[in-house]
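It is worth pausing here to work through a concrete case rather than discussing structure prediction in the abstract. The textbook approach is simple: state the sequence, then state the predicted structure, then interpret. We follow exactly that order.
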Amino acid sequence: MAGGGTWAQLAAPQHRGAVAVLAGGTLAFAVDTYVTASLLPSAVAEIGGEAFYAWPTTLFLLAAVVTSSLVSRVLATVPAGRAYLIALAVFAAGALIGALAGSMAVFLVGRLVQGVGGGLLAGMGYALIRVSLPRRLWTRGSAVIAAMWGIALIVGPGLGGVLAGAGQWRWAFGVLVVASLAIAAIVPSALHRARARIAPGPFPLGSVLLVGAAAAVLSVCGLAADVRVAGGGLLLAAVLLVLFFRHERHTTAAVLPRATFDRGSPLRWLYGLSAVLVGVSGLEAFVPLVGQRVAGLAPVAAGFLGVALGAGWVAGEMVSASAHRPRGRVLVGPAMLALGTVLVAVTLLVIDGPLAPVLWAVGLVAGGVGIGTAWPHLAAASIGGAEPDTDEERDEGEADKASAAVTTVQMLATSVGTALGGASLALGGADPTASARWLFAVFAVVAVLGALMSRPASRGVPADA
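Step two, the predicted structure:
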């Protein structure tokens, strides 16, 4: 079973280095994801390229989705410590290019390079838990890594905003270069025991092309202001993802483990529920906009409202990772997320005035706690989801695919959530209140579907830790 360890064991000398490296790499990637949005207006004002305003984020996430899907192959080809150093070097190189960029073209190159390295860092965060920590610590290790996203949600916009306000936006990327060098310094000692003992299989070219195309379409349609464009993009992306899964089912050069398609395997439900939880968390990107336009909140207050879901996620993770009945948490967490989003949706329909944003905050925090309650157990179960009960039957390659796929699913779900949010806002037209109602109504429906998926997904989670 994946649970049973303690926080003290995770902090033991033989494990703390690996945890620090994996958490640090994930935090660097996550901070970079959020910091760019807050400093981009200042960057564009200095280097130009306003017509390409959305491209830095689009290229970054597109490259990250593609490279995260290749983590299992990278670990089959290169020793774990060396692979992590390569990922850090690529990520730092991209950050340095961004810091020194004198034009939008150069800045975009930097963002693309950062995405390549960042996708590897994020993917190896979960993949290396399996080979650097004992199984009893997987849940807590997953909780620490996932908590980095909640921390980044606060640190990223704050760091970008402060430096941009001081006219020093380039130093945001400089901080990431320094952080990468600091993490790299402890990698050799922290990951020297981590070994992914597998042989590289055939390159999954077809899968990479399909998942990359879907991510590209989602990134673009998430920025569309026209509901027909956004809806058409979502439909095209759905077709591409269906083709991806069909290809994965029949190919020997796959990104996902074979167990995903086995009859009776809970792995597909684990991935599916994980995607719903992460996809619904995409609401946080739109909450500040809703707070300012609908409730008339000041930017600072709207910003704090925007981190309510992330704060709840971190709090839920830290509490839930110590649970002795993880299966129950996987049932309760999605239900809390559904109730929280429904509360916000109903409030938008029937309540005005100063009470409304208070109830929004309550619903968002409750939803975030719900995500955090279920996530560490879903991640730990997914990491071990392709492993049979006997060592004789174990396929290390399939187990590594199952671990790395957690991040690929997470990033695709983020892209879907952003695109769905953009399409939902467009349904309301020019009316901010109507747009907000559509936004939360659509996400409430998705969250309710996730709650219905929790029972089959929970079958892949141990009943007791």
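Step three, interpretation. Residues 388-394 have pLDDT under 50 and may be disordered. The domain at 1-204 is CATH 1.20.1250.20 (Growth Hormone; Chain: A;).
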